[in-house]
TrEMBL record:
Molecular function via GO: ATP binding; tryptophan-tRNA ligase activity
Protein keywords: Aminoacyl-tRNA synthetase, ATP-binding, Cytoplasm, Ligase, Nucleotide-binding, Protein biosynthesis
HAMAP family for the chain: Trp_tRNA_synth_B
Taxonomy, superkingdom: Bacteria
Subunit structure: Homodimer.
Family indicated by similarity: Belongs to the class-I aminoacyl-tRNA synthetase family.
Chain positions recorded as L-tryptophan binding sites: D135
One annotated GO biological process: tryptophanyl-tRNA aminoacylation
Chemical reaction(s) catalysed: tRNA(Trp) + L-tryptophan + ATP = L-tryptophyl-tRNA(Trp) + AMP + diphosphate + H(+)
Protein name, UniProt field: Tryptophan--tRNA ligase
Length: 329
Protein backbone atom coordinates (compact mmCIF):
# COMPACT_ATOMS: atom_id res chain seq x y z
CA UNK A 1 0.00 0.00 0.00
CA UNK A 2 2.77 2.37 0.96
CA UNK A 3 4.29 2.33 -2.53
CA UNK A 4 1.15 3.69 -4.18
CA UNK A 5 0.69 7.42 -4.51
CA UNK A 6 -2.15 8.83 -2.45
CA UNK A 7 -5.25 10.66 -3.62
CA UNK A 8 -7.60 12.22 -1.08
CA UNK A 9 -11.15 13.51 -1.27
CA UNK A 10 -14.22 13.98 0.89
CA UNK A 11 -17.90 14.80 1.02
CA UNK A 12 -19.87 16.56 3.76
CA UNK A 13 -22.58 14.49 5.45
CA UNK A 14 -25.05 17.32 5.09
CA UNK A 15 -27.74 15.52 3.13
CA UNK A 16 -28.27 12.96 0.45
CA UNK A 17 -25.48 12.43 -2.06
CA UNK A 18 -26.66 13.69 -5.43
CA UNK A 19 -25.74 13.33 -9.10
CA UNK A 20 -23.36 16.31 -8.85
CA UNK A 21 -21.37 14.64 -6.07
CA UNK A 22 -21.40 11.41 -8.04
CA UNK A 23 -20.36 12.63 -11.48
CA UNK A 24 -18.10 15.38 -10.11
CA UNK A 25 -16.31 13.32 -7.48
CA UNK A 26 -17.23 9.71 -6.62
CA UNK A 27 -17.22 8.32 -10.15
CA UNK A 28 -13.61 9.33 -10.62
CA UNK A 29 -12.64 7.95 -7.20
CA UNK A 30 -13.85 4.53 -8.34
CA UNK A 31 -11.54 4.64 -11.35
CA UNK A 32 -8.60 6.18 -9.49
CA UNK A 33 -8.63 3.61 -6.66
CA UNK A 34 -7.34 1.05 -9.17
CA UNK A 35 -4.08 2.92 -9.59
CA UNK A 36 -3.73 5.01 -6.44
CA UNK A 37 -4.17 4.54 -2.72
CA UNK A 38 -7.53 6.27 -2.31
CA UNK A 39 -8.41 7.92 0.99
CA UNK A 40 -12.05 8.97 1.06
CA UNK A 41 -13.31 10.90 4.01
CA UNK A 42 -16.72 11.81 5.39
CA UNK A 43 -16.00 15.35 6.48
CA UNK A 44 -18.31 15.87 9.46
CA UNK A 45 -16.29 18.76 10.91
CA UNK A 46 -16.90 20.63 7.66
CA UNK A 47 -20.63 19.87 7.82
CA UNK A 48 -21.02 21.58 11.22
CA UNK A 49 -19.91 24.99 9.93
CA UNK A 50 -23.56 25.67 9.00
CA UNK A 51 -26.74 24.99 11.00
CA UNK A 52 -27.62 21.30 11.23
CA UNK A 53 -29.65 18.88 13.30
CA UNK A 54 -27.42 16.90 15.73
CA UNK A 55 -30.06 14.16 15.95
CA UNK A 56 -29.67 13.44 12.25
CA UNK A 57 -25.87 13.53 12.07
CA UNK A 58 -25.08 9.86 12.82
CA UNK A 59 -27.60 8.61 10.27
CA UNK A 60 -26.19 11.00 7.68
CA UNK A 61 -22.63 9.82 8.28
CA UNK A 62 -23.70 6.19 7.87
CA UNK A 63 -25.71 7.15 4.81
CA UNK A 64 -22.68 8.71 3.11
CA UNK A 65 -20.52 5.70 4.02
CA UNK A 66 -23.15 3.41 2.47
CA UNK A 67 -23.26 5.69 -0.59
CA UNK A 68 -19.48 5.44 -1.06
CA UNK A 69 -19.44 1.65 -0.79
CA UNK A 70 -22.61 1.02 -2.81
CA UNK A 71 -21.31 3.28 -5.59
CA UNK A 72 -18.14 1.18 -5.88
CA UNK A 73 -15.53 2.45 -3.42
CA UNK A 74 -13.92 -0.78 -2.32
CA UNK A 75 -13.00 -0.79 1.40
CA UNK A 76 -10.41 -3.47 0.67
CA UNK A 77 -8.57 -1.12 -1.66
CA UNK A 78 -9.42 2.32 -0.32
CA UNK A 79 -9.54 3.88 3.11
CA UNK A 80 -12.98 5.18 4.09
CA UNK A 81 -13.28 7.06 7.38
CA UNK A 82 -14.94 9.87 9.33
CA UNK A 83 -12.90 13.05 9.73
CA UNK A 84 -13.68 13.64 13.44
CA UNK A 85 -12.40 10.14 14.28
CA UNK A 86 -8.88 11.22 13.34
CA UNK A 87 -8.16 14.24 15.59
CA UNK A 88 -4.89 14.96 13.76
CA UNK A 89 -7.04 16.76 11.16
CA UNK A 90 -8.01 19.54 13.56
CA UNK A 91 -4.56 19.61 15.12
CA UNK A 92 -2.83 20.25 11.81
CA UNK A 93 -5.59 22.71 10.85
CA UNK A 94 -4.71 24.84 13.88
CA UNK A 95 -1.07 24.85 12.87
CA UNK A 96 -1.90 25.81 9.29
CA UNK A 97 -4.16 28.60 10.58
CA UNK A 98 -1.08 30.25 11.97
CA UNK A 99 0.64 30.55 8.58
CA UNK A 100 -2.16 31.59 6.24
CA UNK A 101 -3.05 35.28 5.94
CA UNK A 102 -6.73 36.03 6.68
CA UNK A 103 -7.07 37.84 3.33
CA UNK A 104 -6.50 34.56 1.47
CA UNK A 105 -9.48 33.05 3.30
CA UNK A 106 -11.74 36.08 2.90
CA UNK A 107 -11.41 36.00 -0.87
CA UNK A 108 -12.68 32.41 -1.22
CA UNK A 109 -15.82 32.37 -3.39
CA UNK A 110 -17.61 29.71 -1.34
CA UNK A 111 -16.97 31.63 1.87
CA UNK A 112 -18.33 34.81 0.37
CA UNK A 113 -21.43 33.03 -0.94
CA UNK A 114 -22.15 31.21 2.30
CA UNK A 115 -21.38 34.20 4.52
CA UNK A 116 -23.80 36.34 2.54
CA UNK A 117 -26.66 33.98 3.35
CA UNK A 118 -26.11 34.12 7.13
CA UNK A 119 -26.88 36.74 9.71
CA UNK A 120 -23.90 35.87 11.82
CA UNK A 121 -20.83 34.22 10.32
CA UNK A 122 -18.96 31.76 12.53
CA UNK A 123 -15.16 31.54 12.44
CA UNK A 124 -15.38 27.92 11.24
CA UNK A 125 -16.88 29.05 7.97
CA UNK A 126 -13.89 31.29 7.30
CA UNK A 127 -11.41 28.63 8.38
CA UNK A 128 -13.17 25.90 6.41
CA UNK A 129 -10.54 25.71 3.63
CA UNK A 130 -7.74 25.47 6.19
CA UNK A 131 -9.30 22.30 7.59
CA UNK A 132 -9.66 21.08 4.03
CA UNK A 133 -5.97 21.78 3.38
CA UNK A 134 -5.17 19.87 6.54
CA UNK A 135 -7.25 16.88 5.33
CA UNK A 136 -5.26 16.73 2.12
CA UNK A 137 -1.78 17.56 3.41
CA UNK A 138 -1.88 15.12 6.35
CA UNK A 139 -1.72 12.31 3.81
CA UNK A 140 0.68 14.08 1.45
CA UNK A 141 -1.89 13.42 -1.25
CA UNK A 142 -0.64 14.15 -4.76
CA UNK A 143 -4.11 14.44 -6.26
CA UNK A 144 -7.54 15.63 -5.16
CA UNK A 145 -10.47 14.46 -7.31
CA UNK A 146 -13.27 17.01 -6.83
CA UNK A 147 -15.89 18.99 -8.70
CA UNK A 148 -15.28 22.38 -10.19
CA UNK A 149 -16.49 24.29 -7.08
CA UNK A 150 -13.59 22.98 -4.98
CA UNK A 151 -10.78 23.99 -7.33
CA UNK A 152 -10.13 27.26 -5.52
CA UNK A 153 -9.81 25.42 -2.21
CA UNK A 154 -7.29 22.99 -3.66
CA UNK A 155 -5.30 25.92 -5.03
CA UNK A 156 -5.29 27.45 -1.56
CA UNK A 157 -4.05 24.11 -0.22
CA UNK A 158 -1.11 24.39 -2.63
CA UNK A 159 -0.41 27.91 -1.37
CA UNK A 160 -0.49 26.71 2.24
CA UNK A 161 1.87 23.82 1.42
CA UNK A 162 4.26 26.25 -0.26
CA UNK A 163 4.23 28.70 2.66
CA UNK A 164 4.85 25.90 5.16
CA UNK A 165 7.67 24.33 3.15
CA UNK A 166 9.36 27.70 2.72
CA UNK A 167 9.09 28.63 6.39
CA UNK A 168 9.94 25.33 8.07
CA UNK A 169 11.47 23.03 5.43
CA UNK A 170 9.96 20.62 2.96
CA UNK A 171 7.16 18.40 4.23
CA UNK A 172 4.24 18.71 1.83
CA UNK A 173 4.06 17.94 -1.89
CA UNK A 174 1.69 20.35 -3.67
CA UNK A 175 -1.48 18.41 -4.54
CA UNK A 176 -3.04 18.69 -7.98
CA UNK A 177 -6.73 18.97 -8.61
CA UNK A 178 -8.24 16.12 -10.64
CA UNK A 179 -11.38 17.11 -12.55
CA UNK A 180 -13.81 14.78 -14.31
CA UNK A 181 -16.09 15.41 -17.26
CA UNK A 182 -19.09 15.96 -15.01
CA UNK A 183 -17.35 18.48 -12.81
CA UNK A 184 -20.25 20.94 -12.81
CA UNK A 185 -23.73 19.44 -12.90
CA UNK A 186 -26.43 22.09 -12.74
CA UNK A 187 -29.64 22.29 -10.70
CA UNK A 188 -32.74 20.83 -12.36
CA UNK A 189 -35.05 23.59 -11.17
CA UNK A 190 -32.63 26.49 -11.63
CA UNK A 191 -29.99 25.43 -14.18
CA UNK A 192 -28.01 28.64 -13.81
CA UNK A 193 -26.90 27.38 -10.38
CA UNK A 194 -24.91 24.23 -9.68
CA UNK A 195 -26.77 21.21 -8.33
CA UNK A 196 -26.57 21.43 -4.56
CA UNK A 197 -28.13 20.01 -1.42
CA UNK A 198 -28.56 23.52 -0.04
CA UNK A 199 -30.98 24.65 -2.74
CA UNK A 200 -33.69 22.14 -1.81
CA UNK A 201 -35.27 18.86 -2.95
CA UNK A 202 -36.44 19.81 -6.43
CA UNK A 203 -32.97 21.01 -7.44
CA UNK A 204 -31.16 17.70 -7.23
CA UNK A 205 -31.51 13.96 -7.76
CA UNK A 206 -30.15 11.92 -4.89
CA UNK A 207 -28.53 8.62 -5.76
CA UNK A 208 -31.00 7.04 -3.32
CA UNK A 209 -34.14 8.65 -4.80
CA UNK A 210 -36.86 6.16 -5.75
CA UNK A 211 -37.72 5.63 -9.44
CA UNK A 212 -41.00 7.53 -8.94
CA UNK A 213 -39.18 10.55 -7.51
CA UNK A 214 -36.54 10.48 -10.27
CA UNK A 215 -39.31 10.51 -12.89
CA UNK A 216 -41.10 13.35 -11.14
CA UNK A 217 -38.00 15.50 -10.72
CA UNK A 218 -36.83 15.02 -14.31
CA UNK A 219 -40.33 15.69 -15.65
CA UNK A 220 -40.32 19.04 -13.84
CA UNK A 221 -36.76 20.00 -14.86
CA UNK A 222 -36.48 23.41 -16.48
CA UNK A 223 -35.67 23.23 -20.23
CA UNK A 224 -36.28 26.28 -22.43
CA UNK A 225 -38.33 29.27 -21.57
CA UNK A 226 -40.31 30.24 -24.65
CA UNK A 227 -40.16 28.54 -28.07
CA UNK A 228 -37.34 26.14 -28.91
CA UNK A 229 -34.58 27.95 -30.78
CA UNK A 230 -33.67 26.25 -34.07
CA UNK A 231 -30.01 25.53 -34.55
CA UNK A 232 -28.99 27.95 -31.84
CA UNK A 233 -27.24 27.44 -28.54
CA UNK A 234 -28.98 25.21 -26.02
CA UNK A 235 -30.34 26.77 -22.84
CA UNK A 236 -28.49 25.85 -19.60
CA UNK A 237 -31.31 23.46 -18.59
CA UNK A 238 -31.25 21.57 -21.90
CA UNK A 239 -27.43 21.47 -21.89
CA UNK A 240 -27.55 19.92 -18.43
CA UNK A 241 -30.00 17.19 -19.44
CA UNK A 242 -27.86 16.35 -22.50
CA UNK A 243 -24.80 16.20 -20.29
CA UNK A 244 -26.45 13.76 -17.89
CA UNK A 245 -27.41 11.50 -20.80
CA UNK A 246 -23.86 11.67 -22.09
CA UNK A 247 -22.34 10.92 -18.70
CA UNK A 248 -24.34 7.71 -18.54
CA UNK A 249 -22.94 6.72 -21.91
CA UNK A 250 -26.20 6.87 -23.88
CA UNK A 251 -24.49 8.14 -27.02
CA UNK A 252 -27.16 6.69 -29.32
CA UNK A 253 -29.87 8.89 -27.83
CA UNK A 254 -27.53 11.87 -27.47
CA UNK A 255 -26.89 11.76 -31.23
CA UNK A 256 -30.59 11.37 -32.02
CA UNK A 257 -31.60 14.26 -29.76
CA UNK A 258 -28.77 16.47 -31.07
CA UNK A 259 -30.03 15.93 -34.60
CA UNK A 260 -33.60 16.69 -33.59
CA UNK A 261 -32.48 19.73 -31.64
CA UNK A 262 -30.67 21.18 -34.66
CA UNK A 263 -33.83 20.74 -36.71
CA UNK A 264 -35.94 22.34 -33.98
CA UNK A 265 -37.90 19.09 -33.63
CA UNK A 266 -36.78 17.84 -30.24
CA UNK A 267 -39.57 16.89 -27.86
CA UNK A 268 -38.34 17.63 -24.38
CA UNK A 269 -40.83 15.21 -22.94
CA UNK A 270 -39.24 12.32 -24.84
CA UNK A 271 -35.75 13.42 -23.83
CA UNK A 272 -36.89 13.55 -20.21
CA UNK A 273 -38.55 10.15 -20.30
CA UNK A 274 -35.44 8.51 -21.73
CA UNK A 275 -33.16 10.32 -19.31
CA UNK A 276 -35.31 9.27 -16.34
CA UNK A 277 -35.34 5.63 -17.55
CA UNK A 278 -31.56 5.68 -18.06
CA UNK A 279 -31.02 7.10 -14.58
CA UNK A 280 -33.32 4.60 -12.95
CA UNK A 281 -31.50 1.73 -14.66
CA UNK A 282 -28.10 3.25 -13.88
CA UNK A 283 -28.94 3.51 -10.18
CA UNK A 284 -30.82 0.22 -9.62
CA UNK A 285 -27.82 -1.82 -8.53
CA UNK A 286 -26.58 1.06 -6.37
CA UNK A 287 -29.93 1.38 -4.59
CA UNK A 288 -30.07 -2.34 -3.83
CA UNK A 289 -26.54 -2.41 -2.40
CA UNK A 290 -27.17 0.71 -0.35
CA UNK A 291 -30.30 -0.76 1.24
CA UNK A 292 -28.45 -3.96 2.11
CA UNK A 293 -25.61 -2.00 3.68
CA UNK A 294 -27.95 0.12 5.76
CA UNK A 295 -29.63 -3.01 7.09
CA UNK A 296 -26.21 -4.10 8.32
CA UNK A 297 -25.01 -0.86 9.87
CA UNK A 298 -22.58 -2.76 12.14
CA UNK A 299 -20.61 -3.78 9.08
CA UNK A 300 -20.49 -0.19 7.83
CA UNK A 301 -19.38 1.08 11.27
CA UNK A 302 -16.61 -1.51 11.33
CA UNK A 303 -15.35 -0.37 7.93
CA UNK A 304 -15.28 3.21 9.23
CA UNK A 305 -13.43 2.22 12.41
CA UNK A 306 -10.81 0.28 10.50
CA UNK A 307 -10.52 3.10 7.99
CA UNK A 308 -9.89 5.60 10.80
CA UNK A 309 -7.11 3.38 12.22
CA UNK A 310 -5.40 3.12 8.84
CA UNK A 311 -5.74 6.84 8.20
CA UNK A 312 -4.45 7.73 11.64
CA UNK A 313 -1.24 5.77 11.12
CA UNK A 314 -0.34 8.02 8.19
CA UNK A 315 -1.70 11.18 9.84
CA UNK A 316 0.38 10.67 13.00
CA UNK A 317 3.59 10.30 11.01
CA UNK A 318 3.01 13.52 9.08
CA UNK A 319 2.04 15.46 12.18
CA UNK A 320 5.19 14.30 13.95
CA UNK A 321 7.29 15.49 11.02
CA UNK A 322 5.48 18.85 11.06
CA UNK A 323 5.98 19.32 14.80
CA UNK A 324 9.66 18.43 14.55
CA UNK A 325 10.22 20.96 11.79
CA UNK A 326 8.39 23.59 13.86
CA UNK A 327 10.36 22.94 17.03
CA UNK A 328 7.28 21.72 18.86
CA UNK A 329 8.84 18.40 19.78
P1 LIG B 1 -19.22 18.86 -0.89
O1 LIG B 1 -19.68 17.96 0.19
O2 LIG B 1 -19.93 20.15 -1.08
O3 LIG B 1 -19.24 18.12 -2.28
C1 LIG B 1 -18.59 16.89 -2.45
C2 LIG B 1 -17.99 16.74 -3.83
O4 LIG B 1 -18.99 16.87 -4.84
C3 LIG B 1 -18.62 17.86 -5.78
N1 LIG B 1 -19.82 18.54 -6.24
C4 LIG B 1 -20.16 18.66 -7.53
N2 LIG B 1 -19.58 18.24 -8.67
C5 LIG B 1 -20.20 18.50 -9.84
N3 LIG B 1 -21.37 19.18 -9.92
C6 LIG B 1 -22.00 19.63 -8.81
N4 LIG B 1 -23.15 20.27 -8.90
C7 LIG B 1 -21.39 19.38 -7.55
N5 LIG B 1 -21.74 19.65 -6.26
C8 LIG B 1 -20.76 19.13 -5.49
C9 LIG B 1 -17.72 18.80 -5.00
O5 LIG B 1 -16.88 19.53 -5.86
C10 LIG B 1 -16.96 17.82 -4.14
O6 LIG B 1 -15.89 17.24 -4.84
N6 LIG B 1 -15.13 21.08 0.83
C11 LIG B 1 -15.60 19.87 0.24
C12 LIG B 1 -15.36 18.65 1.09
C13 LIG B 1 -13.96 18.43 1.52
C14 LIG B 1 -12.88 17.96 0.72
C15 LIG B 1 -11.75 17.88 1.59
C16 LIG B 1 -12.78 17.63 -0.63
C17 LIG B 1 -13.45 18.61 2.78
N7 LIG B 1 -12.14 18.27 2.81
C18 LIG B 1 -10.51 17.47 1.08
C19 LIG B 1 -11.53 17.21 -1.11
C20 LIG B 1 -10.43 17.13 -0.25
C21 LIG B 1 -17.09 20.01 0.01
O7 LIG B 1 -17.74 20.82 0.60
O8 LIG B 1 -17.63 19.12 -0.77
Amino acid sequence: MKSKKIIFSGIKPSGAIHLGNYFGAIRQWIELQKEYQGIFCIVDYHAITVDYNPKEMQARILGVAADYIAAGIDPKKSIIFVQSQVPEHTELAWILNTIIPIGELQRMTQYKEKAQKQQSVNAGLLNYPVLMASDILLYKAIGVPVGDDQVQHVELTRTIARIFNRKFGFVFPEPKVILSRGSRIMSLADPNKKMSKDLGEKHYIALSDSPAIIKEKIAKAVTDVGPQPTGGKKSPGVTNLFELLELMGDSKNVEKFEREYKQGKLHYQELKEILADDLIKYLTEFRKKREELLKDSKKVKKILEEGAKEAQKIAKETLKEVKEKMGLI
